[in-house]
Design a protein that fits this description.
Elements (H helix, E strand, L loop, with lengths): L4 H5 L7 H15 L8 H17 L2 H8 L19 E2 L5 E5 L6 H12 L19 E7 L1 H6 L1 E6 L5 E6 L8 E4 L15 E7 L6 E3 L2 E9 H6 L1 E7 L2 E7 L8 E4 L14 E8 L6 H14 L5 H6 L1
Parallel strand pairs: 3-7, 9-13
Antiparallel strand pairs: 1-2, 2-3, 4-5, 6-7, 8-9, 10-11, 12-13
Helix pairs in contact: 2-3
């Protein structure tokens, strides 16, 4: 891991969160292993970029990194110790308790009032009981895990684990409540709940808009003119889609039922935005053809623009 995570993403230390996400998405799309098969350098760079965004894309991790509390790999520096927050292992989860132990004096007073100075219960020997406090977690998952569902494991401060079933279609910021998985109760009372806030990493290819999936697909000059079949990535695999003859950049195809699965059982769609991409090098044959075609079929695509200006 590079010493400066901001340099890895190519942003300034004062960059806004949306600029950091935009920089990551651009680099991840360029370096993703699926788009660079066999390219080890691109694969390693992709890992560095993803690791950098794992810290800078998280408000709390970024704050701690800027203060020098954690290093570029996310490890806590030895000279720093924190008692109210725990950074989990490789699962990306963090823990904090809502028990409110910061005011120990007030906490002791509370139990002094309840039990009396001698430690016995008031009210004719009735046993005191209190429901356990809720425990809060933040769990970062991949885009496709959020879309398709997954099983994740959170490492707890005491070394225990908490298994979480991520339902298909979970959204950024959604909080899952796991009954009885929080702090233990007192006097035989019920345990609190575990509240798991879901954070979703951006995907280099897919974006989400409600229950629909958005993706941009480049097509060649001849595919735009003549039409044809092209391969399109979806959240469940690659499918074949038909490009109509005479397609312009910006035309959007709708793939029914290829989006997010709704609770009703229905699914959103995938919206495929087509972009016409010219070859890296225009050879003499193509140039000659274009010049001949222009002489015979010249047209003005900007006429309406001038009329409306």
């Amino acid at each position: 891991m590079a010493d400066d995570l901001y340099s890895v993403l190519g942003v300034a230390r004062t960059a806004k969160a949306e600029d950091i996400a935009k920089a990551y998405r651009k680099l991840a799309k360029k370096l993703h292993p699926d788009l660079n098969p066999g390219d080890k350098a691109a694969e390693n760079k992709f890992k560095q970029v993803t690791a950098a965004y794992d810290i800078l894309g998280d408000t709390e991790k970024r704050r701690r990194y800027d203060l020098g509390e954690i290093d570029a790999s996310g490890q806590e520096r030895q000279q720093q110790r924190y008692y109210r927050e725990y950074a989990g292992g490789e699962d990306g989860a963090r823990y904090r308790s809502t028990a409110g132990y910061e005011d120990l004096g007030g906490f002791s007073d509370l139990f002094g009032d309840l039990f009396g100075r001698g430690g016995g219960a008031r009210g004719g020997g009735q046993r005191f009981a209190m429901r356990g406090q809720d425990a809060q977690y933040r769990l970062e998952i991949d885009f496709l895990e959020a879309v398709n569902g997954a099983k994740k494991r959170i490492t707890l401060p005491d070394g225990g684990t908490l298994d979480v079933t991520i339902p298909a279609g979970v959204e950024e910021g959604q909080v899952m409540r796991l009954k009885g998985k929080g702090m233990p109760g007192l006097g035989g009372a019920d345990a609190g709940d575990a509240l798991v806030e879901i954070l979703v990493r951006p995907h280099p290819v897919f974006r989400r808009e409600g229950d629909d999936i958005l993706v941009e697909v480049p097509i060649t000059f001849d595919e735009a003119v003549l039409g044809g079949k092209v391969e399109v990535p979806t959240i469940t695999g690659t499918v074949s889609a038909t490009v109509p003859a005479g397609t312009n950049t910006g035309k959007t195809l709708r793939l029914k039922g290829r989006g997010i699965k709704r609770k009703s059982g229905e699914q959103g769609d995938e919206l495929v935005k087509l972009t016409v991409v010219m070859p890296d090098r225009v050879d003499e044959d193509l140039k000659a053809f274009a010049e001949e075609w222009r002489d015979k079929h010249r047209y003005d695509p900007r006429g309406k623009l001038r009329e409306q200006a």
